[in-house]
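Postdoc handover notes: sequence design on the structure in folder B. Input tokens:
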């Protein structure tokens, strides 16, 4: 993707680099994807690496920001523009992103089952960590 800015967080930028070098498998046993959103302030494309789970054909994310009281920028970006690009392995596709609503409790349990650290992140903050659904757009 041209003109995409990777996360300014050095750890995340390194994770993106490893994702690309390994064909989308930077951490064996962990499901990682790359999410590209449009910046709500700049309009520029922003890319980050995230852990995901699957719910049927949908991809599920937790906007944990490691338990910070502030939402991650990628989450705020997709609230303004839910049309995103996703890369899983070597496959790239467009998707529609939305916060989970009634299905959040079940999907939160799913995310904690794939990454138990999310439970500790929730304990660090007073806000409810959002769960996001990525619904692939049919070609």
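Designed sequence:
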């Amino acid at each position: 993707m041209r003109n995409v800015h990777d996360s300014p967080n050095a750890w995340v930028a390194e994770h993106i680099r490893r994702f690309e070098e390994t064909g989308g498998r930077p951490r064996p046993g962990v499901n990682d994807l790359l999410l590209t959103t449009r910046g709500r302030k700049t309009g520029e494309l922003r890319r980050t690496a995230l852990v995901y789970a699957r719910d049927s054909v949908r991809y599920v994310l937790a906007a944990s920001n490691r338990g910070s009281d502030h939402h991650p920028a990628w989450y705020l970006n997709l609230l303004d523009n839910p049309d995103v690009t996703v890369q899983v392995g070597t496959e790239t596709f467009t998707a529609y992103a939305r916060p989970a609503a009634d299905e959040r409790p079940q999907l939160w349990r799913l995310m904690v089952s794939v990454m138990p650290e999310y439970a500790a992140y929730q304990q660090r903050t007073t806000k409810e960590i959002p769960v996001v659904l990525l619904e692939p757009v049919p070609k």
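Context for whoever picks this up: The longest strand covers residues 91-99. Don't rerun without checking with the PI first.
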